[in-house]
Amino acid sequence: MERTLLRAVKVMMTARRTGRFLCAPALAAVLLCSACAIYTLNPRGESEISTIAVEPLENETAEFGLADRLTEIIIDALIADGNLKVVSPAEADAILVGSLTYYDRVAEAFDQNDQVQSYKVRMDFNLTLRNSRSGEDFWTLKTRQEGIYTADEGTEEDGQRDAGTRLVEVIIDKTTKSW
User: Is-above-0.85 flag for pTM?
Assistant: First the structure.
C-alpha cells in the first residue's frame, strides 16, 4: 500500500511539472481505492464462511464436564476473535461438530529434588466443520492440544483452558486461512 501511495505522489509531482496535472487527481483516486481493497490470506479470495454454529463437543473420556467447558472456551474465543460470527445452526454458514477422544495429565518438569514443577494436560479431538446448507464437510481434523501449568500456582483447569485456547487457534486458522 505504501508503494502505491508513493507512486501516486510521484505521478502527481511529475504531472505538475509537465503541465499534465488534470488527469493526476483521477489517477491518484484510482490508486488509493485499489489500495483499500479487501485483503485475505485465503488463496481462493474472501471466505464463504462468515457465520458459524458450535455444537456441544461429545465427551469420550472419563473427565466429567470437560467437553462442556471446552465448548464454552471455543465459543468465547470465536466471539472474541471476531473473524466469524457465532450464531444458531439455522443461521450458520458452517457448523462445528466434534468430540474429545482422549485426556490425560502428566508431570512435565521436575526440580532437583524430583518434585513436580509443572504438569502437561493432553487432549485429542476429532473435529469437522460442515457446510450447513449442503451438508458437505469443509474440513475434518484430528488434533492433539496440550496445556502446561505450574504445580505451585496453576490448576489443572488452567492447563485445560490453555489447550482449549490452542485448539481455537487451529480452528480459526483452518477455517479462515485455508492454506
Answer: no
